[in-house]
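Hi X.,

You mentioned you wanted examples for the new student's onboarding notes, showing what a folding record looks like when two proteins sit in one file. Here is a clean example. The first protein comes first, with its sequence line followed by its structure tokens.
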Amino acid sequence: MQQEIISAGIDIGTTTSQVIFSRLTLEDHSYTAVPDVKIAKKEILYKSPIHFTPLRADGSIDEQALSCLLADEYRRAQLTREEVTTGAVIITGESSRKQNARLAVKNLSALAGDFVVATAGPDLESVLAGYGAGAAAYSKRISKPVANFDIGGGTTNVAVFSNGELQDAFALDIGGRLVRLTPNHRVSYVSERIRPLVSEMGLTIREGEAAELADLRALADRFADICCRLCLGKPLTPVEEALFINHGKRPQPLPAVMFSGGVAECIYGNQPETLGWQQVLAYGDIGPLVGAAFRRRFRSEPAVTLLEAEERIRATVIGAGSHAIHLSGSTVLMHDDWAPLKNIPVIRLDHPERPRTIVSEYRMKRAIYPKNQQVAIAFSGPGRSDYTALKQLAHSLVAATAGERGLLLVVLEQDLAKALGLLMKRQAGGRRIICLDRIRALPGDYIDVGHSVAGTVPVIVKTLIFKS
């Protein structure tokens, strides 16, 4: 049996904001009483124009202008709030650092519908863009890691995939709008984050002064060279290292890359190799120069394969949420006083049958999310279902999450939730624990957990469209 729903995706970025509406065709493939609903077809109904993100004079997000923008796009798409079943509001790049970012995205979600809401930090934004650009899917087809560089106005967000699985995520203060220009070639803005690099290079890029095209081109070339050396595993200078946001990359070469984000339109586009002032000033920033620099640097590097991204500027927004309802088994560890839980991001463990690796794997993936963010741990099962294996798994899960204040929320596919939950409870020293089974949740999913009904627990798994 098929069902059609409408999904919305809303992306509020450093430079631009955009909205997409899609029609999803859901099919029920279940052969038992437990639903197995999957997305059978995805059709984009409406793509908004690319809007400049509205900001106030102090640089904060103009919430009222954003709300008006969204309302206008609903009207242009000829859709009402009630017709849109699900979706995602994502706030990214430097916009996510604004003081009122969380309030803005909360208000947008309330206006648009009951969506998956994520104020994306730099690592999570990397993952979302990587899935949207097609890097995860492409990594399944070749025998080497694939990195997606999502280059926007304020940041470059990088996600690395191998065989479809996330291997690393990091971000740098590299972007096309970190230097802004007036129509008469003067510098109107230089980001504090790149001023040490500008100084180290001896460039005369100062606010209020006339810009030298050679200096702007040199800065763009340095951005591209930094990212290329990251792919080759070559060292960076201390000033270059300071461009990393929160943490650096894992020590591995990146032999295949693709690019998304607004600057990617300039990398893959048909621009001339050497840009004059007319092309440079097209957007009032150095984005065209940055794109041209990345194109030259990566096309001339034989050790790195340049791939074509499936999506560029729309890579992040193209994956609004869809959902499928699942019912957990009847033998679970559940406490209805702690429900309902909504929009909980999933951390998927790749090798739960290896208890000794769980702590390091979980903490690496946990770092993508804010410390106070409630998460759910998902995996297929422990492999072996004997008492010793379950006890080792329970110990590792409790150890991996030690010091966290939220629930220890675990969902697994094997029908072992009650036994595993009780073992965790014995070792967790009074921590709140929910353990559910017969639930399949993948990296990038969000889940909702409802109150128990007739001895079972309803769980909604919300899958990001671009990676389902």
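Then the second protein repeats the pattern, sequence line and then tokens:
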Amino acid sequence: MDRYMSGVQLARLLAIDPGAKPYYRTLAETVRSLILDGRLPVRVRVPAERHLAEALGVSRTTVTSAYDRLREQGYLESRQGAGSWTALPDAGSLGSENPWIAAEDDGMMPLHCAAPSASRTLPAAIAAAGESYPRYTLGMGYDPVGIAPLRQAIADRYCERGLATRPEQIFVTAGAQHGLHLLAMALLSPGDPFLIESPTYPHAIDVARERGARIVPVGIPDDGWHLDLLTCAMRQSAARLAYVIPDFHNPTGHLMDDETRAGLVGAARRYDTTLIVDETWSELDIDEVPRTSPLAAFDTDGRVISLGSASKLWWGGLRIGWIRAGSAMVRRLATLRAFVDIASSLFEQLVVARLFEDIEETRAERRRGLGASRTALVTALAEHMPDWDFTVPKGGGSLWVRLPEPSGSLLAEAAACQGVRLAPGTWFGVDGTLEGRLRLPFTQSPQVVTEAVARIAEARIRGPYGTRHAPPLTPAL
């Protein structure tokens, strides 16, 4: 590496207020902002800790702490004997502050997560499952493909939605993400091209990277999918596997119409691509929308595999999902599962089987709750951030916001100082893209999202170095 920046040169770029506290954090975030906006190029060797400390007039410990923070976040790479140099983090790597491993009761408002509270139908379903549970204790207690009552309930729901389905086509998983991992194990090898939308569900990117796949991103414009972009990407990349979210897309909220669905499946047939279809949000329309068919309804040769989940409709604590596929694929997945977890929780399967009996009641409850929170969020944004640009979705659980400021990551850092966790656009893109975006969920109560927006507005003013705000309101039960 032949590019080097001296301590004096970097100190001149930093221009930090000597009274900033904590100074090491301010130093780290200022370096990060310089990297993100291009003033400090990637792959440039930064000064040794001692030299930068001398140039800034601070202790070496302060600079060491700042460099450690930048390494944790992926903005510095180091090798003993070679020094440290600037870098851009893996978009799926969140370092030591990964919100997915944070405690739920840490006092932060969790607007990084689009997950609603438990449905009111859950307690009765738990009670009913408790009554039937003893009947299953005479057996081994696990079934790799899922218990018969739940598979029947899921198949019946597909039939109600216009897609003929037999229980033998249903494979029960420990959530949709678990299902996606199993499908990747079965269908994706290192180096294979894997087509995904951009933006997309972050953990789909994680799965692709874990499998060593070659990610082929296809952009989703603000007006929704452009079929020609999808079909060209299939043809040019020769991708044999693609992951799409046609129902209230996460994070954009778009709903794919039937004409585009039919065209997408037709293109997959022409170019020999298997489609993994994430239907996690499919039951969560808020406004009146045109009736759409499941993507698999346009399938004639078994190339559409559907993923569903209990987490958004009923509760995230129910780690139950499902895959709809051909019966041969179900048997193959059951064999693969033996290397992972053997079977899903019996009790939770019984709970979800009971919940399907009252699915329309739950959908109506979600329509009211999500609708009220969506209204509260849009109203609060109009008051506090009228310069933010977004389209209000007709369903799903979040707004996909275009920011006037360049960095959603820096805003997320500032919001954390005010007690709010946010999901910057880079989580949903590939290789650090979508920095000017932010996903804002409306799955919390109206009073929580209203307070969260007020705190975000304060964060925009104070920047990423403000004092941590008081704990949030306790949501009304």
